[in-house]
Design brief:
Helix content is 83%, strand content 0%. By secondary structure, the protein is mainly alpha-helical.
Length: 457
């Protein structure tokens, strides 16, 4: 509804109530309360569902780019003559909209696609197109469930539905994405065996269909899990292979991540010089890319390495730059890591009050987000601070939390799963290499045969 029209209606209604109150001798307080009940409606502008398709879309909350995007997409939607064109316009909206109400349009799309696919008049081509789109939509719903709502089980349901549908229609590219999503969600909530299984399956599909762009991220994910398990040689192999492909593809953000992760491995095995070399290369590459998240991560990693080297001034210098970026980005996990860093620095300086403040902030955010490795790190820091401050009971409590989180990440079953998955991967990789070699030999033989025939002719 037009805002001016709404104002006019409200004013007219209030005037009629006022005139009626004079005739009926209503209490002036009743009129005042009624005005209060009606007037707040002017503060928010909710969109009409008939045109905007979803409930509770508050136009006042949207940025100009989102408003323009919605108007453009809905104009196409209402003018379209075919279902596929209508659905495409909403799909574009869900992929580009910034405000989190994109999820409402995604749910609308989910319902519309299910209704469309339930119809009996679809051609085979239309059915295939609808299923492919539905699998993508379910992937987005899963992403929203795990990243915004923190609902792991709901996310996995969507990812598995999308994976099944992608397998049914033979969409291997989306199978790669869904397996990676399941792996990522599983890893986040501590189910390392399932994460590894999904990453390896996704990686093998990428290799079979020569999906080069998808390979390095999976190698990176597997490398990081191996690093957390203490399998540093295997981790370096995966990460170095990932780095090589990312450099070939000139993906600066991912190159920066790889360099940072390799630096972290060298830091863990005690090669401080090599660790710092990779961290600084990561920072330089991140700054070339211009990606603020990657820059913040690299700054924090450099600061952490300076802390290990007892260069606390440089640690604080780089840490403050990372903190500013993470605050501007609203990145809570990044903030948790920087607060942990400052807690370490303060502890080394002997400022226990400051260390405790930063340690508590880090632990609070880590528990809020639910990442086991972040909780583990923050709990160990808090335990060390309490022990230094001679608060042994609290220190023991934090140490028990640290042990609990550590064991959830690193246990016998997980280590066994890592070794088994590594063995399976090596066997499958060897088999795939044999198949590719055989195909190449067959191609060369056929080509020579054709040339010979042409020559004889």
């Amino acid at each position: 509804m037009n805002i001016r029209l709404a104002d006019f209606i409200i004013k007219s209604l209030l005037m009629r109530i006022y005139k009626l109150s004079l005739r009926k001798n209503w209490d002036i307080y009743l009129l005042f309360i009624l005005c209060l009940c009606i007037s707040p409606a002017r503060g928010q502008t909710y969109a009409e569902k008939a045109y905007y398709l979803i409930d509770s879309l508050n136009l006042d909350e949207l940025g100009e780019s989102d408003k323009h995007l919605i108007d453009s997409a809905l104009k196409l939607y209402h003018q379209a003559k075919h279902d596929s064109d209508r659905l495409n316009s909403i799909m574009i909206l869900t992929q580009k909209m910034v405000h989190e109400d994109w999820s409402k349009y995604n749910e609308f799309l989910y319902i519309e696609l299910q209704e469309m696919l339930a119809g009996s008049s679809l051609t085979e081509k239309e059915s295939l197109y609808g299923k492919k789109m539905l699998a993508n939509v379910m992937g987005d719903l899963g992403f929203y469930a795990v990243s915004v709502q923190g609902d792991f089980n709901k996310a996995l349901d969507y990812f598995h539905e999308a994976l099944d549908l992608s397998e049914e229609i033979g969409d291997k590219y989306n199978m790669v994405t869904m397996l990676n999503n399941i792996g990522s969600a599983s890893e986040r909530f501590g189910d390392i065996p399932r994460a590894l299984d999904c990453y390896h399956k996704s990686l093998m599909i990428c290799k079979k269909i020569s999906h080069k762009k998808g390979i390095p991220s999976l190698l990176n994910n597997i490398g990081l899990i191996n690093m957390e398990q203490g399998n540093y040689t295997e981790a370096l192999d995966y990460l170095t292979e990932s780095l090589k492909i990312h450099e070939e593809l000139q993906e600066h953000e991912n190159v920066a991540r790889n360099l940072e992760n390799i630096g972290l491995i060298y830091s863990r095995i005690g090669n401080s010089e090599k660790a710092m070399s990779y961290m600084l290369r990561s920072l330089n590459t991140a700054e070339v890319s211009g990606d603020k998240i990657i820059i913040a991560r690299a700054l924090k990693s450099v600061a952490t390495e300076y802390t290990k080297q007892e260069d606390l001034n440089n640690a604080e210098k780089y840490g403050k730059r990372a903190l500013t970026l993470y605050k501007n980005l609203g990145n809570k996990r990044g903030l948790a890591s920087v607060y942990h860093l400052f807690g370490e620095v303060a502890l080394k300086k002997g400022d226990l009050k400051k260390a405790n403040t930063f340690g508590s902030q880090s632990l609070k955010l880590a528990q809020e987000l639910g990442f086991p490795d972040d909780i583990r790190n923050a709990a160990l820091l808090s335990s060390n601070i309490y022990q230094e401050d001679r608060e042994f009971e609290e220190g023991l409590k934090m140490y028990k939390l640290y042990i609990s989180m550590r064991d959830s990440i690193l246990n016998a079953n997980t280590r066994k799963s890592t070794i088994v998955q590594q063995t399976i991967y090596e066997i499958e990789k060897t088999q795939l290499l044999k198949e590719q070699t055989a195909k190449e030999e067959a191609r060369i033989t056929a080509e020579l045969k054709t040339r010979r025939h042409n020559f004889q002719y």
